[in-house]
Amino acid sequence: MKLMFASDIHGSLTATERVLDIFTRSGAEWLILLGDFLNHGPRNPLPEAYQPAEVASRLNAFSRHIVAVRGNCDSEVDQMLLDFPITAPWQQVLLPQQRLFLTHGHLYHPQHLPPLQADDVLVYGHTHLPVAERQGEIYCFNPGSISLPKGGNVPSYGMLAQGTLQVLPLMGGEPIAQVTISH
């Protein structure tokens, strides 16, 4: 199974269109969105092409292919604009050998883990920082932010294919980070 991950859209139409174009061409079965869909948040600047209603419309066209979790900037009003559920604080994807625990990252993160087993993967956003690494018995994966990257990073998204998780630059190029999760 091939999965694509994106986090922290924050209402950027430019970033949303780029992600949906990549998703369409990628062959991924699911687009996993890790929260902060429409609102830029009070501590963030306005992202490029801040158009939350149009972002909702574009995402709705892909609603049958989206698995999503709620971010700290998401609200009940946002859910009213979206045709796919976003109010769950976490979701799980079960792979043959392990579990992907999907969360935004403000409730569960590497310093505050949910109950996980060895080789499970914590998939989170929130920090806007790309991560793909093994930490102790688990893997941690953060695709970064497609709209407001931090730490000098470029906008990025994630992909899981053939047992490898990669963080990739939104505008193309070599992987920023990667880790192999299947043995």
UniProtKB/TrEMBL annotation:
<dbReference type="InterPro" id="IPR000979">
    <property type="entry name" value="Phosphodiesterase_MJ0936/Vps29"/>
</dbReference>
<keyword id="KW-0378">Hydrolase</keyword>
<keyword id="KW-0479">Metal-binding</keyword>
<dbReference type="InterPro" id="IPR020935">
    <property type="entry name" value="PdiEstase_YfcE_CS"/>
</dbReference>
<dbReference type="GO" id="GO:0016787">
    <property type="term" value="F:hydrolase activity"/>
</dbReference>
<dbReference type="Pfam" id="PF12850">
    <property type="entry name" value="Metallophos_2"/>
</dbReference>
<comment type="similarity">
    <text>Belongs to the metallophosphoesterase superfamily. YfcE family.</text>
</comment>
<dbReference type="InterPro" id="IPR041802">
    <property type="entry name" value="MPP_YfcE"/>
</dbReference>
<dbReference type="InterPro" id="IPR029052">
    <property type="entry name" value="Metallo-depent_PP-like"/>
</dbReference>
<feature type="domain" description="Calcineurin-like phosphoesterase">
    <location>
        <begin position="1"/>
        <end position="160"/>
    </location>
</feature>
<dbReference type="InterPro" id="IPR024654">
    <property type="entry name" value="Calcineurin-like_PHP_lpxH"/>
</dbReference>
<protein>
    <recommendedName>
        <fullName>Phosphoesterase</fullName>
        <ecNumber>3.1.4.-</ecNumber>
    </recommendedName>
</protein>
